[in-house]
Description:
By secondary structure, the chain is of the alpha/beta class. The chain has a single domain, classed as Alpha/Beta hydrolase fold, catalytic domain (Rossmann fold, 3-Layer(aba) Sandwich), CATH 3.40.50.1820. The protein contains eleven helices and ten strands. Strands 1-2-3-4-6-5-7-8-9-10 form a ten-stranded mixed sheet, sandwiched between helices. Helix 1 packs parallel to helix 10. The N terminus and C terminus are likely disordered.
Amino acid sequence: MKVESMKIESMTVKSAEVGCLVVKSIAVKGKLARYAHLYNVGKPVLIYLMGNLQNIEATSKLTSIFARDYDTYIIELPGMGDTEPLKANYDFVFLAECLNDITDRLFLHHHHLFAASYATVVALEYAKIAQYKLTSQVLAAAAIEVPEHCRMATLELMHICQTDRKAFAEKYLELLTDMTGQVKRIDVIRKAAIHQTIRSPEQHIASFIENSLRLFCYRPENLNSITVPTILLTGEFDPLTTPESSRYLADQLNNGVFDIVPGTDHLLHIEDPRTLARKAVHFMQRHRVEFEPLEKIVA
């Protein structure tokens, strides 16, 4: 593993090669974040935020598709991916401010944003404070709250993840996936996901607990103030973030639309990454901006 450090506007950056990726750790607001840059110079910028129990390396199926058309940054904010767990008393506004600082320091003044599951709340709060930076945003399997029918199950998961990793993995996947057999190869996909969840590092499990508590405490407000073009993409058979709840969220936004990824559930990024990416790219390509000189924006 090759490691190097450098300084960017008072932001310490440490780089490490992980497979074909160079993953950089960044100090932001007294916490650590990580990011990888999939270079496609001259193309529009896309920022990718992943959901719970994922890290940068686990997003490759989808981000490799996006990287064909976009200069792509995959970001793990504090408490996400392989960063240290972030206590639940740091709210989503704090995470949005972290993202705002990172985009400032990396000079990402115009970009699209793709956020999955847990990260969709960060995207919404970010849109409230940085609408001038956003060209469009894609929210996949948008989890802006713990649904009423999942609250007790989530509390149980937060307990058993500390005592029985196998039972946690099985119950967690029951919560996320279609149990009626309508998703192709779901048994194989669920088995692989359970195996991966069992092997999750302890810090991922600790982050799951803190992030779940953070989501329990979140109350969406002033969603109609968000004017950024936004699409909600949801799996047809998602039992957690249902098509109905995503359609409702799209209606709350000032410029939101809704679409379904057929034959998928909450694991739509694994079950059909091509269709998910195609719908996302189609939406983003409809919302382009002519870039103005930086000095004109600042002025």
